[in-house]
## 1
Amino acid sequence: MTAQLKRTSMIYGIGAVIYVCGVILTQQMTVTDWVKFFLFFAAYLFIGFDTFRKQSDKLMQKRGFTEYTFIILATVGAFGIGRYIEGVLVMLLFELGVIFETFASDSAKRSIAEMTNIRPAYATLKTADGEVQVDPGELMLSHIIVIKPGERIPVDALVLHGATTIDTKALTGEAAPQWARPGDRIYSGCINLSGVIEARVVKVYEDSTVSKIMNMVDEAQNRKAESETFVSRFSRVYTAAMLLLSAFIMVYPPLSFSYGNWNTWIYRGLIFMVVASPGAIVMSVPIAFLGGIACAAKHGILVKGGNYLEDLAKSDIFVFDKTGTLTQGVFEVKRVKAVGMLERDLLKIAAHVECYSNHPIAQSLFEAYTGAINKDKVYRVRETPGYGVSATYEGQRVHVGNWRLMEKEKVEIEEPDTSGSVVYVAIGNTYVGHIVISDEIREDAYDTLDYLKNRCNGVLVMLTGDSEDAGRETAEELDMDYAYSDLMPLEKVEQLEEFLFVQDSSEKLVFVGDGINDAPVLARADVGVAVGELASAAAVEAADVVLINGELTKLKDVIRIAKETVKAVNQNIMFAMGIKAMVLLMAGIGYFGMWEAILAEVGVMIASIMNAAWTAKYTV
């Protein structure tokens, strides 16, 4: 329980005690009307303290009509006609519902915080004078840190010495510990379990995974979903309309068919005002989205805001990147064809030119070559995304890349009749061969795409910069509806725009990529989902949803969570409106007193909040 909630509950408790004492006193003894008024008014001020404070904050924001407006006007009106006990009881029950809502909201936020509280407390820096504990924010690139068993990894780093197991559950939701050995990348926020390791800092704290994820979690709780903003807008109009209708009930009958019967109709108007309060709807909707975000976090999925859960529930067009998303992103050299030289020499040239690149294709060339790489022989390196790499190697300008790079450098090539990615090699303007590299489809891609197509009636689209043959082969294997190949990053955005143009407002487009080369498309889609490695800044910054452990099946999970969340929101709205309509009718014709009306209102509020909070417990 937060300090603010404790303080509010304490003040509320004092007011409740005064109220109970006042009821007992007035029932057992004869007191004057002024004593009765001051006794119950004191209880009223204590109990309604938080309501008055929140209404004051709304007025400062130039929002006069809120759910608190109804209760304040109704209870003040009850005091005006001498119904002190009922006036305080209405505020007592209403504030009880508000406290319950605040507790549920704090519980959901605390649940999110506990599941994502991965900030490291300190870092152990290795210096010439020994080891010293420092704030993680003080670490610089290439610093050497020591991480002992039980400690949280402070920043993203590369293991230099030692071996251990790492608990990555806080980031990925994966229960099984992961091995970390020299050369392995480890991520901030994870916990070292078994051995002492030394690691070199590869990202400073503000750029590390833990910092970016915690920033995203904080932002997620402040972003409103479309339903939430609609309810907020609706409540302002609804509140004004209901206040006018309440005033009509108070004034019109005494001036017409029930002439002079002011007390009866003012009382009925006040009851109507209590029942008409939109509190149950306004309070339960954000709780539902917080519950959805908490549930997603529990399953290793970070959602930046409730609005993205709502969009995911409406999604029907799913656009995928190919490499690293639908495929494993682990390339293998399948065939080498050299022209005018040995195949091993062609591999040697290509591996050296790509030696500064961290692209998966470059890694496959290193593994196929197996020889020593002398970077001193490589200079004037220029890597162009979507084309390839050009560099000067042993005094000659060498180009290694796709057909676009060859076309740009005016090199005539031989196009092989094969599937897979083709890397062409040219020395100067002379074509010297090509290397065919293939990538395997991920096992979890089949089940995930089948779910999207058959359970979500989704249209499946693939956008890739790979060759047409490789793209078509993958799309046919996964039974996709459309496949577009040989696309540059900006061409992917243009193709995405065409799908966005043909959809209507009830449809949403989801783009799923690895978050490294697809940042523009992730940002442009209605919902961008990153399935890339944890260290990818683009995965955290450009995407709206991050599947932290890279499992594509998590896409199914987050869509199910989104649908359950929206279902809870819709249930709350329909339930609250249905009960309100019934109680308003009964109150208008005099069958409900004020305390019965507020009891019904608080009951609806608590039921809606419990239904919404249950979303956090949902198991996919």
## 2
Amino acid sequence: MSEHEVRLLEAKYAVWKSEQGAGLSASKAFERFVVEQVLRDFDLDSDEVVAGDLGGGDDGGVDAVYLFMSGKLITLETPAIVPAGPIELHIIQAKEEKSFKETPVTKLEAFAKDLLSYNKPVDTMTYLNSKAQDAITNFREKYNDEVMGHPHSLTVHFHYACKADAIPGPKDKITVRSENLKAYVKSILSSAEVKFTFWNAKQLHDSAKAPVESTVVLPVLESFSTDDGSTVCLVKLTDYADRLLTKPDGEMQTRFLEPNVRDYQGPKNPVNQQIKTTLESPTYSEEFWWLNNGITIIADECPVNGHKATVKNPEIVNGLQTSHEVYRWRKTKNSEFDKRAILVKIIVSHDEKTRSKIIKSTNSQTKVDDLNLLANEPIQESIEDRLRLYGLYYDRKKGEYRRLKKPLKDLVGMGTLAQAFIAVVLQQPDQSRGRPQTYIKKNQSLVYDEKIDIDFYAASILIDRQVEAFLDAKEKAGTMTANFVRDVRYYVSMLIGKKWNLASKSSQSVADAMKAVIKPISEQDLETATYATVKVYQSLGATDKNAKSTEMRDQVLAI
């Protein structure tokens, strides 16, 4: 390895930072860059990336933690998937340095010991910030007896990234430490596979230069194409599994699964059991596609030449359960000589509303959580259009704005916007802090109210962003801890919104608010709201439990 690889990475990273990392601090930008490379195949949206970010101080020497079950990100509000299938825990440390050092590995080891010391309550780990504590709680709660009682695989990945020109040698102290860490985790989680990856300049650069666009060449047995380039075809089960469902390392490829319909119902689901039985007990006088509804894919292009379809940017929008069962069958069975086919419908459309209709209608036959289809509702498109007027990009379609290289600081996740609206307009900051996903599910028509001016959503996020920046500055100055910032943020946003009576949902209130919040909110107003919130927070005990309570909400609202 040479210094040339380091220079290549630095050039690539400089471009990424100027385009997507603009406005982020140097350390945070590099952390986000590393997470993007390490978890590239999971195609996380902006909210999901933030969910695993452990923040700054008191993070235990770990920058980010992500738990996946069957390729789906699992957070505190996300129920465990049972049976879970493949489970992956990714623990990431990123240092913008040019050499690997022992200290980050020792910190990873300390974090692992906290994580796996089950007899040590998380609330006693006061040396860790609340995000780090939540990450530990999340793993302990979700990797539970019920999950462990069903067939599954568990892989614990440790990632340490920096700009070094080479990875440590097998006899280096740092390598020995990483092996000791793996051995410790294995001693607790005996059935787990434990990996430690050193990401050097070359590995980061190779990942970053890989094109975001994806083109899959899919062999077809028979096909019929329309004038618009859409295609209906028969594809061998093995080819479908190998080309669209399997990564080079043999694991399942989830990035082609449309983000809104990724929830696999598990092998115990009656429909999936039937699919599995059909796959594993082939009757060659019957074709698989006779018995199965097939797969629907949306793509940008799909020219067919001979017996090959070139599918550009495929999204599997229907057939998720079938896809999972086909992948599992292909991975575990000797299917090389199986000639059966599956029906694949590839629709070429660039019209956003048409694509949304396809996603919604093709998933009407199988029960899909309504939240998974919210991104395609008309109100979401209206919110996206309105936020663009204020230089913000509503990240309702996973990966779209990342492909367009929009700055991360200008992306607004669906969850982030909902939390701001719940706090500012609905005046439920305790729900924003503690249970936003649950609240949205129970109050969808309140959170996404088609009767009010869309600027209420713009006002909410503009207020919340200025509050967040104000509080972050206090944390950097050392006058407020990360836990304080996390716990009081939505209460401060609520008080700022109260200034214009946004809870009334009147046209005049939002008109007045928008005139003010497109400019910087006065520092005096921010300071006053923060002081009042902190005073209540401290009087109640200054814990995250207080921040999630109706008692704190009522007391702050009464100010």
## 3
Amino acid sequence: ANVVAYACAVAEEIEGIVEPSSYSDAVISSDSDKWMAAMHDEMKSLERNDTWDLIKLPKEKKPIHCKWVFKRKEGVSPNDKTRYKARLVAKGYSQIPGIDYNEVFSPVVKHSSIRILLSIVAMHDYELQQLDVKTAFLHGELEEDIYMHQPEGFIIPGKENLVCKLKKSLYGLKQSPRQWYKRFDTFMLSQGFKRSNYDSCVYLKITTHSAIYLLLYVDDMLIASKDKGEIENLKGQLSREFEMKDLGDAKKILGMEISRDRTSGKLYLSQSGYVRKVLRRFNMLDVKPVSTPLAAHFKLSSAMCPQSNEDIEYMSRVPYSSAVGSLMYAMVCSRPDLSHALSVVSRFMANPGREHWKAVQWIFRYLHGTANACLQFGKSKDELVGYVDSDFAGDLDKRRSLTGYVFTIGGCAVSWKATLQTTVALSTTEAEYMAISEACKEATWLRGLYFELCGDTSCITIFSDSQSAICLTKDQMFHERTKHIDVRYHYIRDVIAKGGVKVCKISTHDNPADMMTKPVPITKFELCSSLVGVTV
């Protein structure tokens, strides 16, 4: 959730407009009437929800402070009006562990789960709707006694010495996300839904007419079903329990844009709006585009980190971490073609040099030319397939190898990764074997989730271009060249023996995971991108 909030905050820069940073700024701004109306709406919502009682502060108790947070929200389409939102937020950083809160972890749906659902929706032509919970965190029940000062601008005359004893969770409290999730989870289970064993924010219910799916990311929901009546029924149940906003057909979630062509059975997932905002923020809208995310001449290593005072001074002014983080979110959501490039540049976040920054600028140039690129889901063969590759000793500093894998459903990527291996491989066979083992772990999770959602129990095929590594997955013998390999990488042998995964040979020329471990020529890169559903 923090990654999404950071990425969207970086991109949300509305030129020439400054949002109020406090209550006093809001009341003297040119849009003060709109901000005041937004604050009154928030207070009405808090009152309806019975969020607190005004009481005298008990002895030995210390109240926490609160503040107003203001945000303009642009509509999904250009014709939508800008919405003004005011939110009352508790200053949770002053809460004391063990007294004001205990557990704080709250799950959110995985991006891979979202893409798997979208593939199912496109494959079977399901309805896809979106809902938003208004003031979601206010629905959580508090288990601790927490006291808070009255909100600025809304202190009740004659009751200035009273404080708010919170009955419901409030935005900003450490435990708010967890309490909201517990409340929502309890409600969904009471309505006959089953929580996925593989993703705690995926819910499924089989009815007489069809299956209905719900995915939850904090307060955003995607609902899919063949039967539109089932969706409307679920919307009604949710609206009776929580204050909901019906957003209709799903168009945008977590900065990702969803569009459909139902006549051809195509569904597109893109981030063109987010990409353009990021390009504008880093002054990369007028650069010359390039054809690949990272050129072969970039041989990045820690030796290129700043050495002179001049370089240190120069790099101190470069927003390297912010730029890489913004690009990383695009890669995580819808751009597997960026995986290798970002795996490389993210290794130098602590102390980047000029050459590292040039590589990041190169990625921006590639992104500028492919801002409209998207993942294309369709009605092709309903099959979960994996591709894996490794680049032996690709890391110039510690000589570790790179692992790259991508899994597709119907020819469109749903899960991918490009990362350095944790140990140094002593041969290409060992590097490829370790890469296959990592891909196998992801395949096990994907197969479990896919089975829950679709009932498909078929074996997952993972394609590798290393014949020797494939033999090693089946060969139970230990000999001089393989006896040192860590036991944990032999996990794949058990999975293959049980029939859950099958590893097959594929030509290097046809392996799309090749682009995730090394810079490849333009023609090969375009082929790899098309094989995993990336279209421009």
